């Protein structure tokens, strides 16, 4: 008996699934059955999925198998953060207020995925309204630790092989932090790359839809679909990338494992031939994480939650009430000053990236913190979200508790293709396949 | 009998209504009754309202009158473009697809208005999904002419004294053009000033919520509420404004009445003491209206309409299908090039405004075109929407058919308070009260 044949289909990448279905080697139904089996076996502990109907998933799969080829994701199961509207399953926003809520249409990103042949396997747990109050999801590496958030379920489901890829959203660090904590790739494109129609807003001027997956190749494929492009192989670099090692002003908030990850990656990359040099951000960037998280995020949150504040305050979490209360105290002038600061810093980015293809920066302070009451510190991810630059985390390292610690790579705005190509180059030099996901741990 | 007492309350401004209710001189119910009477008398011709329940409006009014003072808009009736979610009345997007659709919560802007004590009088006609396919609204000055769009009903309702102010949205020129055609003030703030939660997206990177009203004072009041600020009197200028007369590269598309309006305003302003000087936009701005309207608008439209394109194509208008088809042909590279162009031009704005408080620019090619099948040319408004600059139209002039022709004033991003103060100064020098609205015509 061939061992390869017995590898469960839920462990395959999206690219592999699409290829095997295209060649007739397997069916969408078989893939979905293996994903469902994994969920049945593990989700009582991981609690990645919140709205999820096995029969609906199988019905979608069978319809895909019966029908003509839809597109490049034909038959690929995808998990979807539960703040993204789906017409055929509830969208509950991680809040009792939206219990049982059924949107009338799919969000733009969901429609584009289905157009490409994807099966929406189910909705993944999100912190309440993509904020900071978590649901019950655990880290698939160790259930005593947070998976990160707010795209908690998306990161956990992908890390635990329940689904090859999942949609998340990032306003502070809600894609890259859970990806880093769960040991998967997390990618936030340039702001406004994936259309946000049908996605609950947190702070609209920085909210960005992103991907959690187990390979850069998958992220490239999935990104092409949401960019309404024909997928192509990831661009190959013609020369070794120019990498700026940027510790950032909050370097001291990093634990040893995160410093080791970033500096270890830098050393290994230099050895592998990357053109590596230190870079310090201009003085104008000082305190940008606070501008992003406290001023812009809270102010816009107070605005977009106006109805729920007035009518459903008792059913909001204490964390969300604090966000909104903070936002209501921010003056318009302070908000505008924050927006101007972000503009000024964006205008300095051409200088920052003049001699670099990507910056190598810390992604997280360290491993996932213990406990499920909070999802960790978003400062290191939030700087780049607010600057609208594309960023990605690669699951390169582990910490003292053998939990994942990712590094973060950042590129100039709209240089997403370069970021993905550099990431592929870098992962090829310093990545280890068995660092991806929780298979080793679980 | 005092003539003043007999002036119908629907003819008052929002500021006047709020003051009279606050002093006990009238009640919200009395105001709403006069608005309803006006609608009953005129809306069979004007067709400004689409979702509208007199009993619900009166019930809101009575609740306001019975309850404690809510805020600065206590008792003020407001019209709302029907792409903005309201929890207590349908939101139909100007499309049969959304016939009878009931959102579960109010949009952020509606919640903030209600928090301030406003009565949502009803929903106003919009072009389909804030695009270009009009509903049946007519120009209240002459029913044979378009009121403009896509905020058609909001402009017509305000011009016809059905309501003192109404919310619109602008992606190309959907606030300022109908305001100009109907002879009211139309204001589009700096991009992202009013939170868009609960508003149907057209092209999210440029969509902006704005106001249609019959006075700048009202716009200032209403804007403070949506900015979550305590209203203050419009800022007074300490010196005459520095006005840049900017004909723009599409000056030749203006009809004589629009050229006369802009140049006449310039002459009158110089005479009144404004520091007036010609300015030409930098070469980088060439063709920006096309970038805004065709590239960015169509591309994002194709993305955000993905579900409706796949599932409801037959119920989309031919105009919308053309938008989406055009958008689907735009490559990602072309879209990104357009977004970069806009960024580059925004970076040049400090230079453009270095010596000017506001630019005086054409608002529309001319009077409202005849016929109800199309809503006019948005190029002159679209440049500034895409640049994210605040813009306002003042109803200063009339054309050969005695229909209104507005001028447009534009300020630097985030300089909304300066724009409103300059507009007040300018209106005080060159405005004529009886040019506002359709009372003279109807």
Task: Walk me through this protein's architecture.
The structure is a homodimer of 442-residue chains. In chain A, helix 6 packs parallel to helix 7, helix 10 crosses helix 13 and helix 10 crosses helix 14. The two termini of chain A are 25 Å apart. The first copy, chain A, contains 15 helices and 11 strands. An 11-stranded mixed β-sheet of chain A has the order 1-3-2-4-6-5-10-11-9-7-8, sandwiched between helices. The first copy, chain A, is α/β, with parallel strands linked by helices and 442 residues long. The longest helix of chain A has 21 residues. In chain A, a hairpin with a 5-residue loop joins strand 10 and strand 11. Chain A has one domain: Amidase signature (AS) domain (Amidase signature (AS) enzymes). The radius of gyration of chain A is 20 Å and the shape is globular. The interface between A and B is large, with 42 and 42 residues.
Average pLDDT of chain A, rounded to a whole number, is 96
CATH-defined topology of chain A: Amidase signature (AS) enzymes
The CATH superfamily of chain A bears the name Amidase signature (AS) domain
- Structural class by secondary-structure content of chain A: alpha/beta
Which percent range fits the helix content of chain A?
25-40%
CATH class of chain A: Alpha Beta
What is the N-to-C succession of helices and strands of chain A?
HHHEHEHEHEHEEHEHEHHHHEHEEH
